[in-house]
């Protein structure tokens, strides 16, 4: 028997925000390798015989290394198993889905990708915050706050010079540096919204300016995972 790898986007957190095709893939899985940001409620779609393995990263929990995830995919698929790799959001966006797919294909394994609802637009949207709005923003940037070298992404500075809406993922640990860059470009009064655990019952949301946001975040005890939205579209939250 010939196995295969199916990369599935689990959506932003709310288990109902996965695609129907994604659910069908989980139902077909012989092996389910899931991340920390994939809602564990989705595991209920898997069959009783399905092997379920957590391969994500959580504080104080052993972190599965990427090389080990790659090996698991190949090991199971070469045994004829259908391996579903369940990743938070969308498999290709700021994840390592494409790397996993390439590794599998290099080892002779058939692959399929099922896109997911990405948190970068879904989390603001369920909170009625558009990334583009006539008269306020004609475009948007989507950036990672932290690179693979644990440094602040260089494009943050370029983005800060634009009038676009700026969405930063994985940026809470770099919030101070991000704010400093905006202050350097004389945008200390630019509006900013931070949403933690978006689409989940535990969601927190804080609104402020570049000048005030760090104190507000500290007061609200906010942390990762969170989405940072910077720009004038944040005005609409005050109007709703």
Give a structural overview.
With 240 residues, the chain is of the alpha/beta class. Helix content is 28%, strand content 22%. Helix 5 links the parallel strand 6 (140-144) and strand 7. The N and C termini lie far apart (56 Å).
Integer-rounded radius of gyration: 19 Å
Shape: elongated
By CATH, the topology of the largest domain is Methyltransferase, Cobalt-precorrin-4 Transmethylase, Domain 2
User: Which superfamily, in CATH terms, is the homologous superfamily of the largest domain?
Assistant: Tetrapyrrole methylase, C-terminal domain
- Widest sheet, order of strands: 3-2-4-1-5
Overall pLDDT level: 94
What is the count of DSSP helices, taking H or I runs of 4+ residues? 8
What low-confidence regions span 5 or more consecutive residues with pLDDT below 50? none
**Overall tally of domains:** 2
Q: What's the CATH class label of the largest domain?
A: Alpha Beta
Helix content: 25-40%
Query: Helices and strands: which structural class?
Result: alpha/beta
Which architecture of the largest domain per CATH? 2-Layer Sandwich
Extended strand count: 10
Task: List the SSEs and their pairings.
Elements: E1 4-9, H1 20-28, E2 31-34, E3 51-54, H2 66-77, E4 82-87, H3 97-106, E5 110-114, H4 119-126, E6 140-144, H5 155-160, E7 165-169, H6 175-184, E8 191-196, E9 204-209, H7 213-220, E10 226-230, H8 235-239
Parallel strand pairs: 1-4, 1-5, 2-3, 2-4, 6-7
Antiparallel strand pairs: 7-10, 8-9, 8-10
How would you sum up this structure in a few lines?
This protein is α/β, with parallel strands linked by helices and 240 residues long.
């Amino acid at each position: 028997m010939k196995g295969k790898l199916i990369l599935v986007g689990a959506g932003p957190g709310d288990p109902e925000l996965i695609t129907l095709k994604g659910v069908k893939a989980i139902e077909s899985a012989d092996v389910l390798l899931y991340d920390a940001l994939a809602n564990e409620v989705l595991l209920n779609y898997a069959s009783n015989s399905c092997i379920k393995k957590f391969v994500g990263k959580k504080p104080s929990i052993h972190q599965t290394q990427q090389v080990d995830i790659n090996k698991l995919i190949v090991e199971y698929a070469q045994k004829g198993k259908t391996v579903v790799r369940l990743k938070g959001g969308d498999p290709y966006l700021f994840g390592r889905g494409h790397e996993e797919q390439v590794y599998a294909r290099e080892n002779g394994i058939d692959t399929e990708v099922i896109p997911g609802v990405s948190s970068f637009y879904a989390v603001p949207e369920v909170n009625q915050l558009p990334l583009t709005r006539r008269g306020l923003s004609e475009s948007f940037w989507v950036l990672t706050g932290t690179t693979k070298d644990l440094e602040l992404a260089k494009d943050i500075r370029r983005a800060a010079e634009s009038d676009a809406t700026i969405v930063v993922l994985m940026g809470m640990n770099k919030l101070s540096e991000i704010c400093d860059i905006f202050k350097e470009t004389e945008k200390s009064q630019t509006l900013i919204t931070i949403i933690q655990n978006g689409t989940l019952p535990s969601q927190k949301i804080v609104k402020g300016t570049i000048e005030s946001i760090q104190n507000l975040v500290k007061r609200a005890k906010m942390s990762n995972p969170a989405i940072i939205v910077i720009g004038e579209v944040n005005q609409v939250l005050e109007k709703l």
